[in-house]
């Protein structure tokens, strides 16, 4: 699923590129949650969105991959926060923030793919 893991014999949890990707996903999801709370929508800078769309398209990312990453994010957050503080409301908020971010990236991937076909 991750292009940077394809030729690696390393345990995925020890891969610095996977860790860097996880941090980016977490930070962008946090930013999405803040935007949802403050503005009611997620807005990703056009340059960032273009970059994310082209990189994900180039690396063959498809819609189901986003679901896998969301499940990993929510599971990791639940483990870090702990069962006593975790709630369905908290899970729903994180999932919604991620879904909004993923939808923006997925739309950009589709637009990039359509532009490549048209060219």
UniProtKB/TrEMBL annotation:
Spell out the InterPro entries in the cross-references: Globin, Globin-like_sf, Globin/Proto, Leghaemoglobin-like, Leghaemoglobin_Fe_BS
Q: Which UniProt keywords apply?
A: Cytoplasm, Heme, Iron, Metal-binding, Nitrogen fixation, Nucleus, Oxygen transport, Transport
Gene3D superfamilies linked:
Globins
**What Gene Ontology cellular component terms go with this record?**
cytoplasm; nucleus
Q: What range(s) does the Globin domain occupy? A: 1-110
Q: Does the keyword Electron transport apply?
A: no
What are the GO MF terms of this UniProt record? heme binding; metal ion binding; oxygen binding; oxygen carrier activity
What is the protein's name according to its record?
Answer: Globin domain-containing protein
């Amino acid at each position: 699923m991750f292009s940077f893991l394809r030729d690696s014999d390393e345990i995925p949890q020890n891969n610095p590129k996977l860790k860097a990707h996880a941090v980016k996903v977490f930070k962008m999801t946090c930013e999405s949650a803040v935007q949802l709370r403050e503005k009611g929508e997620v807005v990703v800078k056009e340059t960032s969105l273009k970059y994310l769309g082209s990189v994900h398209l180039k690396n063959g990312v498809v819609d189901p991959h986003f679901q896998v990453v969301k499940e990993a994010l929510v599971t990791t957050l639940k483990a870090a926060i702990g069962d006593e503080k975790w709630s369905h409301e908290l899970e729903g908020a994180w999932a919604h923030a991620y879904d909004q971010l993923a939808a923006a990236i997925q739309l950009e991937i589709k637009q990039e793919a359509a532009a490549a076909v048209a060219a």
